[in-house]
Structure formats: structure tokens, C-alpha cells
Amino acid sequence: MGALALLALIDSTSVGTLLIPLWMLLTPKLRPDRFLLYLGTVAAFYFAVGLTLAAFAGAVSDLIGDLDAVSWAELGLGIALFALSFYFEPKRVRRRRGTVTPAMRWQSRLSTAEGSPWAMVALGLAAAGIEVMSMLPYLAAIGILTAADVSPPARVAALAGYVVLMVLPALVLLAVRLGLKQRVEEPLQFVSAWLSRHTEGVLGWVLAIAGFLLVRDAVVKLDLIG
């Protein structure tokens, strides 16, 4: 559970779960209803995808019928993710991405989506849909759950808790923003600017941590260290 909680907190720092909410909190006319609608859309999308992937992974695990084989696959995936993290070293990322950053593109999408509730839902689906291709902490969490000997209801409960924890930091920031109003605007701007500059470079750390947690979990289950 500790590994799952750590992975959820890592997932909470992505563009869709933290950076876009931060920009919404910094708009002159904050709309809490639109904020919650957007965040709820992201959470629901992640949960639905998680259930689908967990069901598929569980079916594969039952078909194999050997938890050790699943754990070996988990170990291989963890090593691959850790190795891949070096490709996303910050200097290499800056050389590849050029002058137009992903943060700039998302800010443009947000500015056009604030006009209607349906546009916010569409933005939430777009953010979650694009990030689902790189939702590596979530995939690592599903891998840990699949390799664990737990019942399907327990997996569903764990996924629900994961998604709630994933959006919790954004909800806490909303509560702070509503309570303290303009007094927290400067700290929020600082965090937003930092994340906007480093959002792609952070992916390397996400890959490394997710890979390490998968390797650690597999090593414990396989009793490789005795």
C-alpha cells in the first residue's frame, strides 16, 4: 500500500492532475464548479481505464496461473522503465523539444475551454487521454496489484483509493485558494512556473521511481535476496 500511495502522489504531479488545475486556480475569476468538473472528469477517466487494464491483467495472470511468472514480468518491466528514464534526462529533453513546450500548448487549450462546462469536460478527457499513454506510475500500480494475491473487490478498492489520492493535492490547493484568496497567488505562480519549465524533465524521475518500485516489489515476491 505504501508503494501504491507513493505512485499515486507521483501521478498527482502531472500536467493533467496538477499543472492545469494550478492555471485554473490562478485565473482572475476562479470557477470552483468548472474546476471540480474538470478534475472529476480526469479522475473518472483514470479509474475507468484502470479497471479495464486491471481486468485484462488479471485475466492474463489467471491464464498463466503462476504468480512467479507474473512477478518475473513485473521485474522485467521495472528494469525497462528504469533504463528508459535516462532517455528523459532534462538536458536531452530540452534539446529535443525546441521552443514550444507542452505547457504552452496546454495553456492555449485551457484558455479556449473555460467558456463552457462541456469544453472543460472535453479538456479533462483530452488531458487524461493523452497522458494515459505515459501513465507509467499508474501502470506500475496495476502491475503491483496484478502480481499481488488479492481479490477483485480489493483491486477495485485500491484503484479507487489511488485515483482519489492522485487528485487530492489539486483539491487541497483549491481549498487553500478559496480560503486564503489572493494571499496564496504568489506561491501558486511560483509552483506553476517551475512545473511549466520542468514538466518534461520530471518524466525521467517518474520513470526511474516507478521502475525502482516495480523491481523492489518483484524482488520481494520472488525472494531473490533470500
UniProtKB/TrEMBL annotation:
Keyword Transmembrane helix included in the entry's annotation: yes
A Pfam family annotated for this chain is SfLAP
Alphabetical keyword list: Membrane, Transmembrane, Transmembrane helix
The regions listed as transmembrane in this protein's record are 6-26, 35-57, 69-88, 118-147, 159-180, 201-219
InterPro entries associated with the record = Gap/Sap
Annotated protein name in UniProt: Sap-like sulfolipid-1-addressing protein
